[in-house]
Automatic annotation (TrEMBL):
InterPro entries per UniProt: DjlA_N (IPR007791), TerB-like (IPR029024)
Domain Co-chaperone DjlA N-terminal: 98-223
Organism whose genome encodes this protein: Streptomyces galbus
A Pfam entry, by short name: TerB
Gene3D superfamilies: TerB-like (1.10.3680.10)
Protein name per UniProt: TerB family tellurite resistance protein
Highest taxon in the source lineage: Bacteria
Length: 232
């Protein structure tokens, strides 16, 4: 192989003589969803100090860099904003809790907790991850919530219930595609329709669910109408 000559050759030799090196220091660790691996992995949070090198030997400080998140499996570095994405385990729990909260809210708004509504709600909650959920459990929870808050079955969506829905849905919405957010609303709509047409209180609850899921009012209306046209 011929030796490298000319300007490019001089640049290559210069890069070998002068360079920079970063010394990383761990400052924390945990579990995160690694975009590189596509799954939950352990990570280290690192801060770094950069130095000029001469012939590979650090000689002068060049300042700090980072922090970064280093995957314990693939070794790739990511910005710390990657930690804003929930792990698969955490995401599953958020989705399960969101479906459970929506089901309870719609049942409470329905007024009577009819058997058909309870069956539809329990099926949705079990599919979301609460494998042992029963109709009797949901019925008891709705009654307990009403007794604890002084709410009356079938009343409009009050401030307390709206807060509960937003607390369950707001953290989840940014991590769901549109089709996923629409699916949660449609589940609530099917629970409401299981015992007959929407009541005004059910419509209000579903509107609150749609807002918490960052669905526009027109999309909420469209989805509710579509659910009403679909045979159960």
């Amino acid at each position: 192989m011929l030796p490298v000559r000319g300007r490019d050759g001089r640049a290559a030799r210069g890069a070998r003589i002068l360079g920079t090196r970063t010394a990383w220091t761990p400052v924390g660790d945990g579990e995160f969803f690694c975009p590189g691996c596509g799954g939950d992995r352990n990570y280290q949070r690192l801060t770094g100090r950069r130095r000029f090198t001469l012939l590979g030997v650090p000689v002068l400080p060049r300042g700090e860099t980072g922090p970064v998140v280093a995957c314990g499996a693939c070794g790739r570095h990511f910005g710390t904003d990657v930690l804003d994405h929930p792990t698969t385990t955490r995401f599953s729990a958020m989705l399960r809790d969101a479906v459970h909260t929506v089901a309870l809210a719609v049942l409470a708004a329905g007024g009577t907790c009819a058997r058909a509504s309870l069956e539809t709600a329990a099926s949705a909650v079990r599919a979301a991850g609460f494998d042992d959920c029963t109709e009797e459990q949901l019925d008891a929870l709705v009654e307990a919530l009403a007794a604890d808050t002084g709410r009356v079955f079938g009343e409009p969506c009050g401030a307390g219930l709206a807060i509960e829905l937003h607390e369950a849905l707001d953290p989840l919405a940014p991590h769901l595609a549109t089709i996923g957010r629409e699916a949660i609303l449609l589940q609530g709509a099917r629970i409401a329709l299981a015992d007959g047409p929407y009541t005004p209180a059910e419509r209000e609850v579903l509107a609150t669910v749609g807002a918490a899921l960052t669905l526009c009012a027109d999309d909420v209306t469209r989805l509710m109408a579509a659910a009403a046209r679909t045979p159960s």
